């Protein structure tokens, strides 16, 4: 879990937003 979080933090904000949108899309 911690590894995922540190990887997430290393991503740029733009990439983070894109992945969030993808996760939301999959959730629907």
UniProtKB/TrEMBL annotation:
Domain of life: Bacteria
Name listed for the protein in its UniProt record: Transcriptional regulator
Organism: Vibrio anguillarum (Listonella anguillarum)
């Amino acid at each position: 879990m911690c590894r995922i979080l540190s990887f997430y933090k290393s991503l740029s904000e733009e990439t983070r937003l894109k992945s969030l949108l993808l996760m939301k899309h999959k959730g629907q």
